[in-house]
Amino acid sequence: MSHVTNETVIECLKTIKGPDLEGDIVSLGLVSPIMIDGGKVIFTITVPSDQTEKLEPMRLAAQRAVSELDGVTSATVIFTAERAGGSASNSQRPTASATPPKAPAAPNNAAARQANNSAPVPGIKSIVAVASGKGGVGKSTTSVNLAIALAKLGQKVGILDADIYGPSMPRLMGIKDQPTVNGKILTPLEGHGVKVMSMGFLVEEDTPMIWRGPMVISALTQMLREVAWGDLDVLVVDMPPGTGDAQLTMSQNVPLAGAVIVSTPQDIALIDARKGLNMFRKVDVPILGIIENMSTFICPKCGERSEIFGHGGARDEAEKVGVPFLGEVPLHMDIRKNSDGGTPIAASDPDGPHAKVYAEIAQSIINSLDGAGFEGVAPSITFE
Asked: pTM here?
């Protein structure tokens, strides 16, 4: 079997006509950088969002053509839908604002939110967002350990890596495989008892995602709706950091069971955490609580505790804004080392003191979800 090359795939794709039926998809600039891993080939085709169903034969033709190349063992082709631009008047264009626009008022209960959304995600009972106002506070590490802790408490759990620009789930979960495709449906990978989907499975780790907002939202839609999640009690969504377009769009259009805010104790981080919390409140998403990450540094040699980033700031903030304080996670070498190694502490040392912290937080989340009446309600997620 010969070795497939990028040039071979490109030449093959030049035979596939584009949406205009004149130029090919390569010359029209619709094909993303191609990823080749052994005999596996993965790439995306960008098309207008309102034509994905109509152009499905084009996607299948490209996938079939590449899969028949000598040296190819499997081909995965995904649509990245982007809205057609250029037709909006100036009055229709969004303008910058210091705060997110206020969503229409809605009753704060699961039934009302479900009624306002007509496309449920089959099998998923509750969707929980793990968010932060800024990057660098350990949100993804927290998301992974919470997901694993939930699974160890008997929940059927999945985790969606919604950070398109900086996907970290493959490394955190120690997964190096790629999802398989059955028709248009991706099969999620699994690690430590948790189903996982991430853009990081589809591109090389050092490949920058130079995508505009609509493309990001479309990719998230596909990773959510075109994935065989099966029956889940909880889908943890590792949100992108900040309060930008992607975060606001998801928050406004996803009937989240609740959001968990992650922050370090220092004032500068709490300012940004407060922004994230207020964003969810503006779109009527319940706040399940705040976690203080890197709460206290514990020396791995002598056990001495040092408050490098301060201590107790998140607890004080939770009391101030009237939301639950879920717990303190220390800054410890084992948490960092195991995360980098793909063996999160909640999985590698489930009976240790750090895993116990995550387990207690996970139990609080389960209690909140059960008490909110979300059980049996299939949340819907739509992106506009």
From this structure: 0.67
